[in-house]
Automatic annotation (TrEMBL):
Transmembrane spans: none
Protein name: UvrB interaction domain-containing protein
Biological processes per GO annotation: nucleotide-excision repair
A Pfam family of this chain: UvrB_inter
UvrB interaction domain residues: 101-181
GO CC annotations on file: excinuclease repair complex
GO molecular function, one term: ATP binding
Entry keywords, A to Z: ATP-binding, Nucleotide-binding
Keyword Zinc annotated: no
Organism: candidate division WOR-3 bacterium
Length: 278
């Protein structure tokens, strides 16, 4: 989701909280984010807002245990409370490595086996325990660490044709999956790239201010949206109720996005106005 055309990468302390949320939402599409927000209440609001958007993973930094909440090939937003925490969080996020094995991809088999061996996996005839892998013809079995069951990769040439979870006792397949994660394997993707945003004290060098609350006064809200659109503003309305999306779109004649935003704002430099039903 792109809300701002400018390359914004600073969290000004006096800017509206929801502006910070949307900035983090935009930046996390191409980076892992570590964001320092000194005010605890504001951190909690930002996390709640971020969590309302599908596919967004936001966590509070809690030392090494934070790693348990970071998984897959999605980007994450890690929220910290002070500069020292921010440094530790960025180091942790940068160090996490993983490899996604998915149907349809070309698999470089020997490099994969070399990586597995380097991080302590054992090559065996038949996989029975965590940290083991095996190859028989066009079939590769891997039992990832931390998983309860192993995975069977069926190849067509070097292409992953199917992936199944199987039973170590019977060696029989149980169910199909589309992909699985191997922790500790370096990926060629940029998914572990980390962008650190420190909080900047003071007033932003651009004109942005909160929207007044309309307290259910639809007529007043319609009037304000109409005025802003006449002045060339892009208007976005946020709702948590997907069933109302089309109704709001028809009523306000503007963009409607599913997500929780507690406080609207007007960003004059960007000609952007944000409204919320909250």
């Amino acid at each position: 989701m792109r809300f701002f055309s400018k390359n914004l990468d600073r969290l000004y302390s006096t800017a509206p909280t929801s502006f910070k949320t949307l900035l983090l939402l935009q930046l996390q599409e191409s980076n892992n984010i570590v964001a320092c927000i000194s005010d605890e209440e504001e951190r909690e609001i930002i996390k709640e807002e971020l969590d309302s958007f599908p596919g967004v993973i936001a966590v509070f930094f809690n030392g090494i245990s934070t790693a348990h909440f970071i998984h897959g090939d999605k980007h994450h937003v890690v929220l910290t409370g002070d500069p020292e925490e921010t440094v530790h969080a960025a180091e942790l996020l940068s160090s996490l490595t993983f490899r996604i094995i998915r149907i349809g991809e070309k698999l470089s088999i020997e490099p994969l086996f070399e990586h597995l061996t380097e991080i302590g996996y054992r090559r065996v005839g038949f996989v029975e325990e965590e940290g083991e892998f095996a190859k028989r013809g066009g079939i590769i079995d891997i039992f990832p660490r931390g998983e309860k069951e192993p995975y069977r990769i069926e190849l067509f040439g070097n292409t992953v044709n199917s992936i199944r979870i199987f039973d170590v006792e019977t060696q029989r397949s149980k169910r199909r999956v589309k992909e699985f994660i191997l922790e500790g394997i370096v990926s060629n993707s940029t998914k572990n790239r980390v962008l650190v945003l420190q909080e900047v004290k003071g007033i932003p060098p651009f004109k942005i201010y909160p929207n007044p609350g309309y307290r259910g006064n639809i007529s007043l809200l319609l009037e304000e949206i109409y005025r802003l659109k006449e002045e060339g503003f892009r208007v976005i309305f946020f709702t948590t109720d997907e069933r109302k999306t089309e109704n709001y779109r028809s009523l306000f004649n503007c963009e409607v996005i599913k997500g929780k935003i507690f406080e609207g704002f007007v960003f004059e430099d960007e000609k952007l106005a944000v409204f919320s039903e909250a």
